[in-house]
Amino acid sequence: MKLIIYAIIICISVAVSGCSGTEDSALLEINAIIDDEPELAYVKLKNINSHDLSNKSSKALYALLYTQAEYKNMVILKSDSLIDVALNYYESRDDKEKYVRSMIYKGAALADMGDREDAILWYKQAVEVADSTDYLNLGQANLRMAELYRDSYIKNKQYFYNYRKALEYYKKAGNTRFEQKCLRALGLAYRNSRIKTDSAYYFLKASIELSLNNNDTAAYFSSYQSDRKSVV
User: What's the whole-model pTM score?
Assistant: First the structure.
């Protein structure tokens, strides 16, 4: 009788663990490097068989990370079905950061699929839901909105605001790589709009200085050439 009870307890424990919110350790390691080493993260994700993941929590994190890795490695997203797995899971879970990130990459998928208006709506929702200290996601959402507004036919210059907000959040997050990207984007935006040429010069100079501090030669030469054009 004791053996039967013991066997039942083991079965219940296995069943509970399969439904729990514990993510696979390999996925947690990938989650830790996805922003700084997206290429390596993508390679690691490709080596994971999603069918072997034991619970819904791991499947949701895999869906989020795989979509994120594809986007960061400049793979055009042709469907939003995978990110929907993460979005639907985190919507009812107490993990706001991943829920906000899922909304951002839902927007990214829609943008890649050509649905810019709905993409912007998802980015706006991400900004509304995110904690005020979630600087990286707030920066990402504003940067994506800025790029979509910039590349659209909207002439209200909304992208200036979103670039500035993205810059503000990246500074708070200490993410100098994206801070430099925003500085350069703002410099080019002011230069191309032919308004506030002094602002164009200011932001491009700041971009050059930051790229030098980061030892990012590619960013340096890109900003340097842009800066030379702004004073010609």
Answer: 0.82
